[in-house]
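Hello again,

I reread your note about wanting to compare the complex against the isolated chains. To keep things tidy I'm splitting this into two emails, and this first one only covers the full assembly. Below are the input lines as submitted, including protein chains and any nucleic acid or small-molecule components. They are followed by the predicted structure of everything together. The single-chain runs will come separately.
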Amino acid sequence: MFNIAATVIVLAAALVIYRAIKGPRIYDRVLAVNVIGTKTVVLLALIGYIYERPHFLDIALVYAIINFIATIAFLKYRQTGGLD
Amino acid sequence: MDIIRTIISGILIATGCFLIVIAAIGVVRFPDFYTRMHPAGKGDTLGQGLVLTGLMVYEGFDLISVKLLIIIIFIFIANPTATHALAKAAYVAGVKPWVKDEGDGK
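Full-complex prediction:
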């Protein structure tokens, strides 16, 4: 069950990589990276269940926080030209 | 009891995977930036929420399910916030919304 779910999520992330490469503007690329990051959080939780190591959930939580902060920081840098 | 819990978690995980795939197809296929934001903001958030809820039902109640609940709550708050900030940044930068037939119907 977890193997099939992880495979489906990896295929969905491979679809979104098309938009991250081709996207006509830089905002499309940031959106695609954000979507891939959300999928990565789910994938980390599923991998923790596949290998029966629950410590992967801590990595998933940290990855969710890093994903959010990276998006906000990049947008602020893009809008104001600095991170002050 | 154990079989019922496994079946419920399987249904939740399958629905979440379906929503995640639909969100990915929407991000690839929609014609405009603002319309692409729609599957990324809603479908993806609900899909990951359903998958992680399925894992939580599979696990039962202990420290691991509490960690899963923390991840779900954080992404339910953070992902729409990031999408909203992205839409505002694109609007300030002057990205035009998509119009269906430009100069044809009028």
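For quick reference: Chain A touches chain B through 41 residues (CB under 8 Å).

B.
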